Structure formats: C-alpha cells, structure tokens
Amino acid sequence: MLATLLLVLSSVSVAVTDLYVPETSARTERALAAAPVPSPTAPLHISEERSDAGIALARSADWHEPAATTDRSEPSHHGGGYKIVQWEWSYVQTPYIIAIWILVASVAKILFHFSQRVTTVVPESCLLILLGLVLGGIVLIANKKQLYQLDPGLFFLFLLPTIVGDAGYFMPSRLFFDNLGAILLYAVVGTLWNAFCTGFSLYGAKLAGMIDEKVEAGMMEFLLFGALISAVDPVAVLAVFEEVHVNETLFIIVFGESLLNDAVTVVLYKVYISFVEVGPGNIHTADYFKGVASFFIVSIGGTVVGLIFALILAFATRFTKRVRIIEPLFVFLLVYLAYLTAELLSLSSILSMTFCGIGCNKYVEANISQKSRTTVKYTMKTLASIAETIIFIFLGISAVDKSKWAWDTGLVSCTLIFIFVFRAMGVVMQTWVLNRFRLVPLDKIDQVVMSYGGLRGAVAFALVVLLDGDHVKAKDYFVATTIIVIFFTVMFQGLTIKPLVKWLKVPRSTSRKPTINEEIHERAFDHILAAVEDIAGLNGYHHWRDKWEQFDKNYLSKLLMRKSVYHKGELWEVYQKINIRDAISLIDQTTQSSAGRKEQGGNVLSSARLSLPSMASRTSFSEVANVTNYLRGNESGVCLDLQVIDMVPSGKVQEETETHHLLTGNLYKPRRRYQAHYSRHFMTVGDKERQDREVFQRNMRSRFESFKSTRHKGKGRHKKDRSQKKRKGSDAKEQDVNGKPRRNVSWQDTAVLNADSEEEKSENSDPEKEEDVGITFVARRADEIPKQGPKSASVSLETCQSPSVMPPSPTCAEKHLPWKGGGGTLPVCVSMETTKIIPIDLQQAWNQSISSLESLASPPVQAEPQHPRVAAICRQEGVRAPGGRFQFPSEEEEDAQSPQQQEMQPLMCSGRPPPQAPLPNQGTGRRPPNFNPCVYLRSLVTAPPPGSEPHSRGPTQL
Amino acid sequence: MGSNYSTLSKIPNVDDLMQETGFTPAHIVRLYDRFNALDKDKKGHLSPQDFESIKELAMNPIGDRIIGAFFTPGQEVVDFHSFVRILAHFRPVDKNRPRDPNTPEPVNSRTSKLRFAFQLYDQDKDGKISRAELLQVLRSMMEMQVTEEQLESIADRTIQEADLDGDSTISFDEFRKSLEKVNIDHKMSSRFLR
Hints:
The structure holds two protein chains of two kinds.
Chain A: H1 2-20, H2 22-34, H3 41-56, H4 65-79, H5 89-114, H6 116-121, H7 124-143, H8 152-169, H9 173-178, H10 180-207, H11 219-230, H12 234-241, H13 248-278, H14 285-317, H15 327-344, H16 349-367, H17 370-399, H18 409-435, H19 444-452, H20 458-466, H21 475-505, H22 516-535, H23 543-560, H24 563-611, H25 618-623, H26 627-646, H27 649-666, H28 671-674, H29 685-711, H30 726-737, H31 747-757, H32 767-788, H33 793-800, H34 812-820, H35 832-855, H36 868-877, H37 892-897, H38 901-908, H39 933-941, H40 953-956
Helix pairs in contact in A: 1-2, 1-5, 4-5, 5-7, 5-17, 7-17, 8-15, 8-16, 8-17, 8-20, 10-11, 10-13, 10-18, 11-13, 11-20, 12-13, 12-21, 13-14, 13-16, 14-15, 14-16, 15-16, 15-17, 18-19, 18-21, 20-21, 24-29, 24-30, 24-31, 29-36, 31-32, 31-39, 32-34, 32-39, 36-38
Chain B: H1 2-10, H2 14-21, H3 25-38, E1 45-46, H4 48-52, H5 55-58, H6 63-69, E2 78-79, H7 80-87, H8 110-121, E3 128-129, H9 131-141, H10 148-162, E4 170-171, H11 172-178, H12 184-187
Antiparallel strand pairs in B: 1-2, 3-4
C-alpha cells in the first residue's frame, strides 16, 4: 500500500509540476538528480513538523497533510522570476523520504543476505532492529533529537494491513481450520489470562514496592499495560518462526493465535482506556458486561465484515474476464477495504482482513488469470516483506530517543518475568485441556516452543505510544518497558529459539553419516507414511468439513466461481471412470492399427524410448529389452567396480560423497516437508510444483501402463465406435506410435513431436531440451503447412475427418503470434472474435459428448483433473513444460474453456485440441490451429489409418 | 460420544478388530468414516481405483506401490477389516503399555513395519530385493534429471552396502540390518494414529 501511495503521490506531483512550470519541470528533475544527495539533516529538519502531528493522531490518516501544505506553498516558491535550477525539496519531501526509507530497508535486506551464515544464525528481525538502533543513533547524534518513530497511524493504516493481508490471503486455510479450536483457545483464553495475570501481578509488585514510586499507575493502568503487552505479535512471530522449522501444526497454532488475539487486545485496550479516563471510581457493574459484549461484537463483527468483503471480492472477480489488468487491484483494494471498514466500525481489523483473505482465496485464485495470480502473489509478498522490514527498523529507531528513557528496573524486570512465566503457565494449562480433545496431542517440546515463541512486537509498541499521557501518567515508563520487552523477546528469544528447538528436537547427536541404504529407505519411509496418512485421511478429517465442502460445491462455488472454472472441478471426479473407458478404447485402437503401422511405427517407438530412458515407466521398461540400455547399464556397472578396486580409499570416499550428494539433492521430498507452509519471504513453490508435476506424470503414466497391460486382452471390444470418434482414435494411435501411453502426460507430447520429427538427430537428448526443440519446431511447422499438401499427415486428417484439429477462424496474426512468443508460455493473444465464436459450437460439442458418453462405450470424454496443485502446475508452466495435466482430447472441457479462452490459454496450450465444432473450413484440414501448436503437430504425427501409405510422412518431417 | 457407538455397532466384529490392531474406538470410527468416504459407490469394499482417486497419492512418488500393498495378489478389493489391519502397521508403539509376551507380535512392531516397507520393494514376493526391483523404486523416487547411469550406480552401491551374503540381492534380514540404526518406530508411525 505504501508503495502504491508513493506512486500515486509522485505521479500527482509530476502532474502538478507540469501545471505550474511546464518548461522547467524537466530541468527541475535533472537538477534534482544532479544535486548532491540531500544531507541527512535537511530532510530531518523539514520533517519535524509532520512527525509531531503524526504521533498525536491515533489510527487516523493525517498522513497527507504535509504534502498538502507544501503543495500550497508552491506558487509563492515559483513566484519570483524564472529560475533555471530550483530546489524543490519541500515539494517532493514526503514521497522522497518514504522512498528513501524503503530503499534503505531493501538495501539492508540485500546486505543481510549476502552472508548466508549470519542470517541462518541471527533472525533477520534482529538484524533489522540493530540496524534501526544504529540509524537512530546517527539521527540522534546529527540532530540532537529523535525525529522518527514508528508512527501508530502509519503503522495501523499501512504497514500492518500489508502484513496481515498477506498472512490472511496465503494462509494455509485447511491447516488453519483444522486447528481452529486450539487457535481460538490460545488466542482468546490465553490472551485474557496473560493480560489479567500480568496486569494484576504488576499491580501486586507495585504494592509490594518492587516498582519505583515514580511510576504513577493504579490497578487500571497496570491492567491496561498488561492488556497491550500480553498479545503475541503476528509480525514478530512470523519473522522468527519462519526461520525455525517447527512442525506445521505448531506453526499454525502460534501464527493463528497471533492473528486472532487482536480482537481480545483491541477490546481490552479500549475498555481499559475508557475505564482509565472515567476513573476507577466511576465504573459501574454494567460496564464490565458491556466490555464482555463488546468483545463478541468486535470479534464476530470483524469476522463478518471480512467475510462479506471476501464474498464481494470473489463475486467481483467472476466478471473481470475482460479487464484482466485490474484483477490484482481488486484483490488489494477489497482486502484493504475489509481492514479499513472494520477499523471504521471499530471492529477487529486484523480479524476482518484475515478472514477476508482466507475466505476469498479459493474463489479468487480460481477466477483470476495466471498472470494476475502471480502479480497478486509477488506484490503481496513484496509489500509485506518491506512493511515488516520497515517496522523492525523503525522499532530500532524509536528506541533511540531520550524522551523514552524513563527506565525503571523494577517495572522492566517484573514485566519480563511475568509475561514469560504467565505465558508458559497459560500454554501448559491450555494444552493440558486441549490434549484431552485433540487426536494429536501437543507434546512437551511443542509446549516449550509455544511458550518461548510468545514474541511481542510492533502492535504492542504502537498501542503503548497511542496512550494518552494526560490520563496515563506512567506512559513513558510503559513505553520504555514495552520497547525492552519487544527487544528482549524478538532479539533474545528470537535468537535462541532456533538452537533451543534444535537442542530439544534432536537429543541424540547424529554425527554419523547415514549409509546409502539408510538414506534411500528413510526417504521411502517418509513417502510411505505420507501416503498412508493420505489414504487414511489423517491430515484432518472432519465430518463438518465434508458438510462444508458439500455446501461449497453446491452453492458457493456456483455463485462465486466462473462457470468454466467450476465445471472443471467436477471433471476430476469423473476422471477415473472416464480414464478407464478411454484406455480400453485406446488399447482397442492400438491393436487394430498396429499392423498397418508397424514399419515406421517401430522405428519411432524405439527412438522415443531411447530418448527418454530414465523416464521409461516401470512396466515398459522391464518388458522392453532395450539393448542399448542394458549395455549401458552393464558398462557402468563394470566401470564402477573398476573404480572401486583401482581407486585409493580417498577416491572411494569421494565417490561415496558424490552418491550421497546425488541422493540428498535428487530424492523427492516427502510431502509434509514443504506443504501447507506459509512463508512471507520465500516462494519455493516452483520447486514443489515441479516435483509434483514430475511425480504426477510418472504415476499417471505407470497407472496407465499397468492398466493397459492388464486390459490388453480385452482389445477389440469397441470397434464399432471407432468411426464416431476418429479424433480420439488418431490420438490413441499417435500415442502408440511412440510406444508410450501419453494419454495423461502431456509433456511427452512435445517430446514425441521431437522424437518423431528429428528421430535421426536427437535420439538421446534429454527431455528438457527436447521440449524446447519441439516448440521451435512447431513454429517452423506452422508456416510450412500449405506446402505439404495432400501427402503425409494431412492425409490422415482428411481421412479421419477430424473436426477437432480445426481452430475457429484464426486470424493471420493469431496463427503466428503464439509461437513467436518465444516458446515460453503461450501469450494471451486469442482475439475476442474467437471467444465469441466458440460457445455456440461448443454447446453442441458439449451436448454431443455428453450423449456419446452416456450411450456409447466409445472413447469418451476426457476430464481435466481438478487437483488444484495439478492445475497450478500446468498453469504455471505453460508450453515449455506442458506437463502436469492430463492431455486429453477433451470435448467436455470445451464448454468450460471457451468462454474464457483467454484465461485458459496457458493451461490449454500444451496439447489441448481446439474445439470440435464443425467449421466450414475444416475440410481442408491444413489450417494450423491458431492457438495450439501442439494440437496441430499432434495431428501431424498422427499415424495414418491402415489404408493410407505410411511412408509419405517421412518427407514432411523436415 | 453417542454417534461413535452407533457407528461402531455397524461394524461387524469390531471388538476383535480393536483387539488385534490396538486402535481405540475413536480411531476405528474415524477410519470407518474415511473408508466410507473413499468407497464412493458404497460397495462395502475398496478397489484400486478408489485409492487412485486420492489426489495426494498421485503426487507421491511411490503412491501406487503403497496402493498395491493394500491388495493381496489375486484380490481386487479390500474390505474394512483389511484396510484397518494394514493401517495398523503405522500405529506408534505404545511405550507405557507393557506387552504381554504370550500374545503374538503386534502388527505395529518394528519388524512388521519393516516388513511392510520391504514388500513395497519386493514386488515379486520372493523375499529378496533384486537389483531390478531396487532400480524401479529408485527410478520413481529420484528426480528426472538423474540419469540412468547414476541410478544404476546408486543401486549397485546400495546393494553392495547391504548385501552380506554376496548374492547381489537384499534379503529381509539384510534389509533389517542395514536399517538397524534407524528409528523405525519414529519414521513409520503416524502421530495421528496414536
């Protein structure tokens, strides 16, 4: 938000400058650039006026004011005579300072991460606070007075929402709701317990004389202080816990608690403030009840506001198809508005924003385009990360201020001890209660980490700064204590929690290096366990979740998701059934056409196998006695032995190390290690998705293989349907041409294309390369089509009357642009025309496919898997690695896809046949599809039916 | 919980099952719900297709093998009792309940956990992990960028390391010996089944 604001400000300023002095504006800028970097004192001096105002105004946007005043002074500035070079500092001051601060924060982050070793030992938050202290010291020395501090208005209106918004939107919601009970207990009861106990104990300590007389505070003041100091802080907790690898349940509990305790903190804070203001004597019993009531209003109200905005947001993104460019804006605006609205109604804004994020995520992610998704993700992470950095730096700076050094050892030490002790007690007691109900009890280590991880942070600081010094006499002491508490928890506990966890988690030291056997088998055990837990549904299985999913599927998704996206969800469910029927027919096709295709088919087959030796699926690999592979295998075995014998021990050790290295680097990670983790700074999604994609492809392929082998005897069952489903048939044949079932595995498509076309050249190239080559090849191919004429593949097309290869009315540009895009993801360049044309035809195709599915046992409709991760995978990868989705000649999808060709583009590009709508120009069979190179190519490599001459394909291969 | 008992009464021989597997009624109820959720057509048993429709398994490198472990050869379906018995392998060993030496070894013992893992490798059930079998597992567990040579080299080394009697295969005893130092109970126990 800050950055956005900055942008707006600067753009406005440019516009205004243009208005005033059009001729000089350019020069002004140049002058500014040429001018020496503004000395630190200059900005500081001028910003004085605003920092004062900023502190006083709580949670309100007083923020534009300085900019406005400087704007007004502008004309007089320009009034006297024409100046070539002008010093326009007062004009750019506010955005300039902000930009500089953000720059400092970013540079600081870069510097910290230069040294890997430092950041693994010291949490970033500590480094940032230290940097803040240093910067604050510089400012203080230069200026004799601290000008900066974490301004509550700025904090609550801009910095906090970015962090909370990010946390809410990317919250692993399943995990969150699994542990909602525990989270709520810790957040509500735990915070109340901490607040009251800390408050009363401090009051007791004061009565006992442990706290100095100078601290003028009564019971209410201490309770107030206890309330604001007791809440675990989301910013600090995230910053530290992210670097400590605790198990995900623990993480989500502490993280969720830190978010949800906001309601308690807000209510307690407000109630006590009002109590302090009216004075303890004037409080009636009713006021206590009002306080309790207001807790429910604030928390439930905040949640409701958040959910309402989530609904609005999800609903709005249903209709942004034509204005993709503002989709991310919608997300930011509405999530932010949820926060502001809650703040406006004095409800819990953090709750509101969190639930808005959680609620809308599923639908928004489904609705918006891939690019928007990426934009949202990166922007949110960037903003949150920078906001966090600024918060910690400013916490450091705020501490270097003489006015805050109202030190009282008794108060500080008592507070530190109390919050730690009561946190630990609270955690132990609540966990004891919880464990009676939990299936997975929290063990002692979890409890220690939870107690120790109760970090306080900037929220407490902002709240304490907001206190009214007239009513709360001891404000200065409280501020100083809060700073100490924050520093202690963030720095000391943050620094020590990692070693602590390590020390607790691994009581036995494993200096021994695992043997190869151990390494492999242990990883296998991890996978086994993960799979068993998936099978047993142990990752949180609840009755009400099923109910909710039912409701969501029946009503909410229908309302909030685009039709297309929604339909895809159902497809995964029919996938299993359909896959089998399709496979049956495929085998049928295979056996039927194998005779006619043998000569050249065999050739291609072996080449394809050769080119992807390591990917050969289980069955095919063991079945096909691939001579080359065996030779190679033996060879390497021999080599290995020789080396072992010949090498001196050091050589052997080194080799062993290499093997270990290979193993650790390349064994698939078990699911639990990376899933469902929220991280503000690191987006390792790519890795995970790549692994998922690979594994998924392999699994689907092997399933298919084994299916084929078991069902092979049932061939020939579905002969009669062949003519009706030629497209499928050709597809199937094509797959068989390469001896590999590629039904579900679309990356192979490209690989096969290549194998097919360049079989002589690149038999052993690695798959990745092949994919690329394949795409380039496609590009060339498209241009050459007309020449190839009646021979070769197009023959088969015509014979087959395949309607599916026909794109709806491609324009010239469309034909070429997609693959001119460089083979990355297919650009979104389907014209509106296309989008408009398809639906009607598709409607028919859809209906046809439905009926054929029902009535015929033919190779029926294909389904797109709706596994969200799979979908994400293919969306992300686009053409370059079009794997991860089932490559189906699907008609069913068509319906779904067509209304938003645009969006589905990257998803569909990999091998998806264009609509099967009968089009006037289909007879030519030569038009390349406008948006789908692979489809076209696939049709090219399609084996001709038994009747046509098989050799004619040769020349077309270029 | 009343609903638990009503669910339990629906399962035949539930007491024997609990006795045999050591699961609590809460576990049984939960697994029963899960079983029914997986059993989409309400057949009363699960087929491999029911397992294959679990999305997470499609992402598991050896997911299909694990599915296979639920089915004895020649049998296409698994009923609730077998389902629970297999999952019982993954129940943590109860530390505080001393085992009666007279009872047969529980299904969640270290040895049976290991045997379960072993049979995932040993697909032809000859009691030995051959090089080819190991290679298959390795191939599915290693990322695609690993070349066949590397895989074979790893497989050879693995066998070399574990093979004690020099027959170039890994028998169950050798398998167990090679994993002597590994905390199997920790690795192969789901904390959810405690």
